[in-house]
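job 3f2a | input accepted
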Amino acid sequence: MGARHIVGRPRMIRHILCCVALTHGLSVGLEGQDSGAWRASFAAGEEARRMGDVALYAREMAAAADLLPFGDPNRPVVQYHAARAAALSRRGSESVEWLRALWEEDIAPLMVSFAEEDRAFDGVRDSAVFRELMRQVAALTLSARRLGGDVFLITGAGANIVARVASDGVVLVDTGYGPTLPALRRTISQLGGDEVDVVIVTHPHEDHMGSAATLGAQAHVYAHAATATAMSEPYVFMEGVSIPPKPPAALPDTRVESPMSIQFGSEQIRLQPTEAHSAGDISVYFTDARVAHLGDAFLASNPMMYPGTVDPDAFLDRLEGFLDEMHPESVVVGGHEGVTDLPAVRRQIAVTREAMRFVRAAIENGRSVEETAEAGRDRFPPAWTAFFYQLFTQLGV
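job 3f2a | predicted structure (397 res):
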């Protein structure tokens, strides 16, 4: 079972689609959409940004955003670039208008939260219109539903948050984006909770750990050692755009490097490293409530499991072993999307193993990546087949 930590209120301690377009990320749709006129402007804007030509960066990103139709999943990324380029050009009102459009179109609205820490917005951040937009973010209404026992799913903050809210304290698995913390606090209060006592971070992406810096001033933070390292470095939101490292209060008080359990009040909480989506993934299981949070290591809409690029077999073995120790009727939450069950996760693992076996056999038989993708087209999406082919070729396995 690993180490056992006892944590309670009296003794509080502080605490993009990528890889062949397979995994969840913020750069939604920038790869894999049909080419259009907007792409030329976007590429020109990126080049201008790299060359330090702020005026051209602003013109080209605005042009790209104007060329994209409403509802296109690429719009939020392009709108964000248009906003930061306008801010760098000292056109504060235009910058906020781009952010407001991003927010109101509601494709990836919480992307605006990066502007709170992006240095490009230093000259805009104190303006009344910018602060009003951020107040709207803070005024979000989050949704909560009971999953089992005292454990709830909270949605609307950018990622799925699992919260245990009971008389003996509050435990959070992930926090959502930083600017949504006021909304998260209101939701916890509505559920009958007060201060957050424990924060468990499933992996080092901002939509999952954005409020760790504030909550960590009082809460005991658990996270993978690789998450601690990532928190200590600038967070790269997209190419050329990063936000500063987290302050010391956000860094984990306990670094999870092997399976362990926490006894918090009446609930035993098990933590299992499941590195794949990132180097810092951990999965969480509330034993009494029978609720699992697998972070972004599991996305229900994926046709199969993304097993990472280091040792995919070991990842699947670790995750499957973790599932084996759960009650068969457990509820499962991924980092995003809806609630599911253990059989759904097991099916995704099974098809992943099947695809891996298929690709390995094709490599052994001397098939090219194109031949392999075509041969498996009726069983597996070609992008996944190509991913595994390239991965196994690089790993030599």
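job 3f2a | The radius of gyration is 22 Å.
job 3f2a | closed
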